[in-house]
């Protein structure tokens, strides 16, 4: 077992990366709760804590998990992304709690909100340090942001490319973008996919998996 000890801003004590844990492996706690007493507070990061691929969604209201506690479950968009993960070999087992290998999933806004509500800019800002801490603890090589909000955040925070790129998800979809220590491959919101979008992201992931992608991190550090 590999153990990594980190201090997270806003937490009172060190937390451990216990790799056997698939859900919330670092014991993060959301800073606020606006849901009812019998409703889920948050959809925490989930998957292989030693993964090289990191799938990044928006919030539970868009990409799912309010009923299962697992990102990318229970919504049209979430199910489409999970289907891709299964096709390229990242996911197996039950749909509501899949077994993930070499893939970790989380949201830039992990907290659940009452039905019909969406996070405010302040809400996103409140949770940014939690998302960033978990992403850096996982230490993945390939970042896969899903949708415009997640892609915008990842390009701004983890690459030097945002000012050079239009946030046109149809053009960014399945494209490789060098970042500061990462390779970023944006994924267009599945509800907006057109004829070849699904095939394009499957082909891109299979191509990356077929090469020595673990060298990406060093290359991206010098190029991004």
From TrEMBL:
Gene3D superfamilies: Uracil-DNA glycosylase-like domain (3.40.470.10). Coiled coil: none annotated. Residues 44-170 form the Uracil-DNA glycosylase-like domain. SUPFAM superfamilies: Uracil-DNA glycosylase-like. One of its GO terms (biological process) is DNA repair. GO terms for molecular function: 4 iron, 4 sulfur cluster binding; deaminated base DNA N-glycosylase activity; metal ion binding. This is Uracil-DNA glycosylase-like domain-containing protein. It comes from Natronorubrum tibetense GA33.
């Amino acid at each position: 077992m590999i153990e990594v000890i980190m201090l997270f801003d806003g937490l009172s004590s060190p937390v451990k990366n216990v790799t056997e844990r698939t859900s919330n492996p670092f014991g993060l706690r959301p800073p606020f709760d606006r849901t009812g007493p019998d409703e889920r507070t948050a959809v925490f990061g989930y998957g292989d804590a030693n993964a090289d691929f990191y799938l990044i969604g928006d919030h539970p209201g868009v990409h799912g998990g309010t009923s299962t506690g697992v990102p990318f479950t229970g919504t049209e968009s979430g199910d489409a992304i999970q289907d891709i993960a299964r096709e390229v070999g990242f996911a197996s087992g039950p749909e509501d709690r899949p077994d993930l290998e070499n893939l970790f999933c989380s949201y830039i806004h992990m907290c659940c909100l009452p039905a019909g509500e969406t996070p405010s800019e302040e809400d996103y800002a409140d949770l940014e340090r939690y998302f960033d801490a978990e992403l850096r603890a996982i230490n993945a090589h390939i970042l896969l942001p899903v949708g415009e909000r997640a892609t915008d955040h990842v390009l701004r925070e983890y690459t030097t490319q945002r000012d050079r790129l239009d946030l046109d998800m149809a053009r960014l979809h399945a494209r490789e973008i060098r970042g500061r220590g990462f390779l970023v491959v944006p994924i267009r919101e599945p509800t907006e996919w057109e004829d070849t979008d699904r095939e394009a992201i499957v082909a891109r992931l299979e191509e990356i998996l077929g090469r020595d992608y673990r060298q990406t991190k060093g290359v991206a550090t010098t190029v991004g």
